[in-house]
């Protein structure tokens, strides 16, 4: 039912079993920091409590898996792939109704997590990657990678530079095989969209996609759908204008949803973009533990990029009481970093993100973006002109 | 301008676990140890792969990694440094190097009291990029900002493309101080931060009663210690 397990994930499971489950008596006593490997092979540092949380999370993942198998038994195999309504109006109303109820069930279910074994299939379908892939010949990815093989561009040079710097030490990503796979995906994408080419940050996103999707080709299509359909435009192009827009929207939302924090941080002259930029560009992959990151991505692929705001707001919200007592920028950053690095239980974060932040529709967010765009463009434009004038002065 | 300092024997890193105790009679209204320190926001700028993160990691943790994760946006570090009998706390923003991240940089250098512009001595492009940063900071940055130029990867002598002389002349002409560093061998890493600490304008005791005098040189600017004032 789950298909064959690849070499990668067997290796991970084996290693993680060994490293995680038995923190030594000494470390238990001394409450020392221990190093261990998480579900996806990342080395994590934490105390014994963190190890226990991680073990609980594993158990929850298993339980959640059982919920999915039970639904599969009652609703039929792949029921979750048939939740889109409207494409064929020939559907009978009862079928439409079942698609709708399935969509509602699925939304709730996905917020509680997709079992790791089902992730590749579900992400590929729900994100729209499958559809995107179906519009081009089957050989598209192979042809593209062959056609660009051996070509050197500024993008490929930067990619080569970043390969060993992407999650160094990871048991698969940081091997010649892992580097080669990541390189092919990033290089292929840099040729597919020359406006994006290669933007630092995509290395982490693509690496995690590779770990989940297991095949390069699927990872490539996930990257494509993410950049072309899921995220706001121009997040990674030229001057990151899309990212600037998102940051402004985020500041407004923080002021609205967490006014106490926003006004305190303003009094410290702390610009939330100082920390949130990385969250948005790497989709939390550099800040949150891997399973927590992937749980966030589960929801992003089903509900859209607005989820990034929910999660970013939740990180602040969770630490409201501590944040409003800070006196220095450094303290704020320490609180946020410690919090994100130790969010081993995804439910702690997602409960706040969806229950406490309150819902925000994609529509509201789009309106906010439209409002901010002209200002961002003006600012970036002025900056470029100032820099250019500075260069001509010099001649 | 002065170059490599040899008078840095007093440079001493104070571990984060060593709280600095200020004599009580000088400061009775203290709340926490933090108030005894003057914090200085500082920024590292430079081309991708020049070694900005490696310099910070060496300075803050005394470590070197052959492959350092690429920085996205910017990473924050803090480190305390004892200079003569004063203590300076650096709050360091280590920025992303890729050209397109340039548009984010003002957010990090806007309030900075000091900047280290880093290039890789084995790459001419990175030196060109460093000069652009200098220009930008001169026009857009805080006018009292202390600027240092770091020619990093000085251990790779056989691959050198930028001579120390060329960089020194450039630094002198532009009012920066210059050092060649190696995050790998640790050469000059603490020294460059120490040198910056010495040049920071001292806090004005009148304006900042809980602050402290940092250096025994006359103040170069009126900028008081930020953050904790």
From TrEMBL, chain A:
Family annotation (PANTHER family): RAB GTPASE-ACTIVATING PROTEIN 1-LIKE, TBC1 DOMAIN FAMILY MEMBER 2B
Recorded superkingdom: Eukaryota
The protein's name: Rab-GAP TBC domain-containing protein
Domain Rab-GAP TBC as annotated: residue spans: 113-304
Gene Ontology MF terms: GTPase activator activity; small GTPase binding
Residue runs in coiled coils: none
Source organism of the structure: Phaseolus angularis
SMART domains the record matches: TBC
TrEMBL record, chain B:
Topology class, membrane: Lipid-anchor
One GO cellular component, as annotated: endosome membrane
A Pfam family annotated for this UniProt entry: Ras
SMART domains: RAB, RAN, RAS, RHO
Localization annotation: Endosome membrane; Prevacuolar compartment membrane
SUPFAM superfamilies with a match to the protein in the record: P-loop containing nucleoside triphosphate hydrolases
GO molecular function, one term: GTP binding
Chief location of this protein within or outside the cell: membrane
Keywords carried by this UniProt record: GTP-binding, Lipoprotein, Membrane, Nucleotide-binding, Prenylation, Protein transport, Transport
Annotated GO biological process: protein transport; vacuolar transport
InterPro entries: P-loop_NTPase (IPR027417), Small_GTP-bd (IPR005225), Small_GTPase (IPR001806)
Superkingdom classification of source: Eukaryota
Record carries keyword Magnesium: no
Stored CDD domains: Rab5_related
Nucleotide-binding listed as a keyword: yes
Similarity section: Belongs to the small GTPase superfamily. Rab family.
Name of the protein described by the UniProt record: Ras-related protein RHN1
Source organism per UniProt: Vigna angularis var. angularis
Underlying gene: Vigan.05G158900
